[in-house]
Write a structure and sequence with these properties.
The protein has ten helices and 18 strands. By secondary structure, the protein is of the alpha+beta class.
Length: 365
């Protein structure tokens, strides 16, 4: 089969999966969209006889049905050098490049099996829609306010002052500050910490009552196959609010058996969102209640196998990609793919990608 993977130069997941699929006899092409237009050219020809796509980074040309599977892994935007355009033209040039690449995606989308379908992915990235559908699927969720109304935010904080309130962003935010990279994590806030009303109006945010945790779960869904990992986030101070703020060296994880009733509800949510793959974050409370937080339709998952080699997520994902089915179920008796066998080659390939392609030195969520 032929695979196309949208990716970025620092994306180890795409490289590892490419190495495994090629070893299994498949043809795999990585697409670095940020290379357009400075390092990469595309041509799409539409006539009465056929429609085809040619790229300077790929084989000479592709028909629309050329790819069997497309992994919408990391979708970058074209990077246009500002010094090559007139300031008044820059926005136009950016827009034209984005529309051109979006058009290629639209042409491909009717032919291949996608992980995940671009339209479903765009819809599923709404955290508010996730919560709404999770509730309809029978999952417990935290009471949630998303707002830029100072009055409503202050009222919400007052209503839940006993539990405390957390703030989190609608999307990841990472920025450079002097020699360091900073990231915005979930944080507990109170009314005294709020900025002025004028500043509060500028940016909507998600506000929820703080939910006490016994531990947390990361549930990776590959079709019908849901793999839960217990994250012992309450064992150290810097991971209690948001475990992403801790170091993987100190975070403790272990395999976890998810109750069947919860698994069915998560599978229902995946169907409602139209997703074949997703990484779900949940809380298990001291009362053993399972509380849905959010789903990342292209989340990181191989860090789990790196920390706990007996949780075979690479084998699952590669077989899932080969089966091309929303109803995929993994067979552990046939498992023979191990992350550790590909890590050295992956590190070298990522270094080469970062040197050869347009790369912004920012970590990805």
């Amino acid at each position: 089969m032929k695979y196309l993977i949208y990716t970025q130069p620092d994306d180890a997941h795409a490289v590892i999966v490419k190495l495994v699929l090629e070893e299994l006899g498949h043809e795999v092409q990585l697409w670095f969209a940020a290379d357009q237009p400075s390092l990469l050219t595309h041509s799409v020809s539409v006539n009465l006889h056929r429609t085809f796509w040619a790229s300077s980074d790929h084989m000479p040309e592709y028909g629309l049905s050329e790819f069997d599977v497309i992994w919408h892994r990391r979708v970058d935007q074209p990077k246009v050098p500002k010094h090559l355009t007139h300031p008044g033209d820059y926005t136009f040039v950016i827009r034209e490049n984005r529309l051109f690449l979006d058009s290629i995606t639209s042409l491909l989308s009717t032919q291949a099996w996608w992980v995940n379908d671009p339209l479903a992915a765009r819809r599923a990235n709404s955290k508010l829609l996730q919560l709404h559908l999770a509730k309809k699927c029978g999952l417990q969720i935290p009471a949630t306010l998303c707002s830029n109304s100072p009055q409503d935010i202050k009222s919400f904080i007052k209503a839940y002052q006993k539990e405390g309130v957390i703030y989190k962003a609608l999307c990841p935010n990472i920025w450079a500050e002097k020699a360091n990279l900073k990231a915005l994590y979930t944080a507990i806030i109170d009314a005294k910490q709020l900025p002025s009303d004028e500043v509060l109006k500028l940016t909507p945010g998600i506000y929820q009552p703080y939910v006490k945790k016994k531990y947390e779960l990361r549930v990776n869904c590959f079709g019908k196959d849901c793999v839960a990992t217990k994250v012992n986030s309450q064992e150290q101070e810097n991971s209690k609010i948001d475990w992403r703020a801790s170091s993987e060296d100190t975070l403790s994880i272990e395999p976890y058996h998810l109750p069947q009733s919860i698994e069915f509800k998560l599978q229902s949510l995946m169907r409602q969102l139209g997703l074949a793959f997703g990484c779900i974050d949940m809380i298990v409370s001291p009362e053993n209640e399972y509380i849905f937080l959010e789903i990342n339709e292209q989340g990181q998952f191989l860090w789990i196998e790196e920390m706990e080699p007996n949780i075979l997520l690479l084998d699952r994902f590669v077989n899932f990609m080969q089966h091309r089915s929303f109803y995929f179920n993994w067979n552990p008796r046939e498992a023979n793919i191990r992350l550790k066998d590909y890590q050295r080659d992956t590190i070298q390939q990522v270094k080469e990608n970062m040197a050869q392609h347009v790369y912004e030195n920012l970590p990805r969520a």
